[in-house]
Design a protein that fits this description.
The protein has 297 residues and is α+β, with helices and mostly antiparallel strands. The longest helix is centred in the middle third of the chain and has 12 residues. The protein is built from six helices and 14 strands. Strands 6, 7, 8, 9, 10, 11, 12, 13 and 14 form a nine-stranded antiparallel sheet that branches. It has a five-stranded parallel sheet with strand order 1-5-4-2-3, with helices on one face. The chain has two domains: 98 residues, Oxidized Rhodanese, domain 1 (3-Layer(aba) Sandwich); 179 residues, Beta Barrel (Lipocalin).
Length: 297
């Protein structure tokens, strides 16, 4: 793959088409003079370049954020694979250009989201808990609705949270036979598992959230610490989570972790507690995937 230094770029950019491969909001903020925009993160990247530059022998220089970001090299690989024969990468990207105090075009206003702040109430229509229960031979999966919840943010940092699950809403998504599906739900609601008649809700209360300084977008940015109450039993619970601003007034979050049901009195089929279970064994751990949406109030 051909690359250019910043000196070589300055000498050649007038005879080549310069492509800024970051999203359009970043292009609008700041881009190299004369550059056009095609975002490499979009599935239509190659077809968009084909509209802008139909001649595949055209000299093209691609650049992105610079540093360790893969954006420009990925763009060059895609274009070369698509048949473009004269593609060069400026690996320093916009970061090196700015470091050398060279002129930029654009609004020069930083794109991004406002810092979240305040009290956010859970949207119970779009928030959900997805569960997976397993044994050696099979697994089932489904959902549980959340009935209420809130998140408290101070200066952009998560301070506390509380989420309540409606255990009566437990549903199975993989059993298409309605009779078997109903039988499983009855089984999950009875005393063998979650004793829903006596304990219709479960609740997680987060009283401490530790930021994870080494996180990157798309990986957990907090470890949540608190208590989980299920079947009337309260136990400490900690797990990693992603909590981020969707826009100025909305938060979104997700977490995945394993919950040991036997700690809360759900003993059915536990190989730790019963002998000779054979095909009747049920894993002690239930996998939970929590997806949250919350709005500022």
């Amino acid at each position: 793959m051909k690359t250019l230094s910043i000196t070589e770029l300055q000498a050649q950019k007038k005879t080549a088409t310069l492509i800024h491969v970051l999203p359009e909001e970043h292009f609008a903020c700041a881009h190299l003079p004369g550059a056009i925009n095609a975002c490499v993160y979009e599935t239509i990247f190659v077809s968009k370049v084909a509209e802008l530059i139909p001649d595949k022998s055209t000299a093209i220089i691609v650049y992105g954020a610079g540093g360790d970001s893969f954006d420009a090299t990925t763009a060059a690989e895609k274009l070369t694979k698509a048949g473009y024969t004269n593609v060069t990468v400026f690996p320093g990207g916009i970061a090196e250009w700015q470091q050398n105090n060279l002129p930029l075009e654009g609004t020069h206003s930083e794109p991004g989201l406002s810092t979240p702040q305040g009290h956010y109430e859970l949207d119970t229509e779009t928030s959900v808990v997805r569960w997976t229960g397993r044994n050696l031979f099979n697994h089932h999966h489904g959902t549980i609705k959340l009935s209420s919840g809130h998140i408290e943010i101070e200066n952009g940092i998560l301070q506390s949270a509380r989420f309540t699950l409606d255990m009566n809403s437990i549903a199975c998504e993989d059993l298409v036979d309605t009779a078997y599906n109903a039988m499983l739900i009855r089984h999950l609601r009875d005393d063998d598992f979650f004793a829903v008649d006596r304990f219709p809700t479960a609740e997680f209360i987060c009283d401490r959230a530790d930021p994870l300084p080494s996180c990157t977008p798309g990986t957990p940015n907090y470890t949540l610490h608190g208590t989980m109450t299920l079947r009337g039993v309260t136990k400490p619970l900690s797990f990693p989570a992603v909590i981020a601003a969707a826009d100025t007034d909305h938060l979104t979050g997700q977490a995945q972790f394993e919950l040991d049901r036997t700690q809360f009195g759900s003993h059915y089929g536990s190989g730790r507690l019963f002998a000779f279970l054979g095909k009747h064994v049920v894993n002690d751990h239930v996998h939970l995937h929590i997806k949250l949406h919350a709005a500022r109030r």
